[in-house]
Amino acid sequence: MSPSRLLSKFIVKIATTKFPKFIQCFINKMYVKIFKIDMEIFEPENPCEYETLNDLFIRHKKYIEFYEDEDIVVSPSDSLVIAHGDIEDNYVYQIKGKKYKIEELIPYKTQINNGYFVNLYLSPSDYHRFHAPIDMEIVKATFIPGKLMPVKPSQLEKELVFPKNKRVVLRCKDKKDRFFYFVAVGAMIVGKIHFNFDERLQKDYDEIVTFEYDTPIKIKKGEELGRFEFGSSILLFFGADHFKYLNQQDDVEVGDILGEIY
User: What is the pLDDT of residues 4-21, one digit of tens each?
Assistant: First the structure.
C-alpha cells in the first residue's frame, strides 16, 4: 500500500473514532478554530454536538439557495475556482501551466473537444457535501482507482495530480439531452467519495469499474449528490457550444452562478 493511502487510512481512523465527549469537544473546537469555520450557518452550530470529527467534516448547511432559472449552472460546492477555460485539442488545464489530455482523466471517448472545463477545489474548511449543478440525468458512473495525492493548488502547480488520483466520473445529460461530465477527485486525506444514488461507488476497487444506468438517474438542480470526507476537487466538462462561463469570482459557495447552458 502506498504511503499516501496509509496516511489517509490512519487519519480516517482518527476522524471516525468516537472519543470521550470532553476530548471530542476539544478536537472539534480546535478544527473549527484552525480552519476558521463559521458554524452559525450549519446545523448543529455547536462543534461539541458532533460525535466524531468525520461528522463535523460532513456537517449540513442550514440553508442553500439556488438560482431557479433552469439554464443556469450553479456551483455544486463551496470551492475555489482554480482553473477554467476552453478545451483545445482535447487538452485541459489542471491549474495554470499544468495541462493534460482528457483521455488521461476519463477512460473513454467523451467528444467534448472545443467545449469548456471548470475546476473546483474544496479546502478542509469548506462544506464537504456537493449538489447537482443543474437538472441532470446520470447515465453512467465510472470508478477509477489511483493515488491519493494532495490536491491543494500549491501541489497542483508542481505536478499532474488529477489524472493520477482516485476519482469517480459521472456521465450526465442536461435537459437538452447533451452530455456533460462531473468528476469527483479523491485527495490525500479523503477516505471515501460518497454518492447518494449508488452505494456501490463508495467501495474501493482495484480496477476500473463502470455502472451503466439503463434508466437514467434523474436529479434536480440543488439536490445533494454526495459528499467528500475532507477536502478534494470537482471537475466539470461541457461539450462544444453548450456552456457559457459567467462567474467573476475565485471563491464560490454552493448555489452560486457558474454559467449557463444554451
Answer: 556 666 777 788 899 999
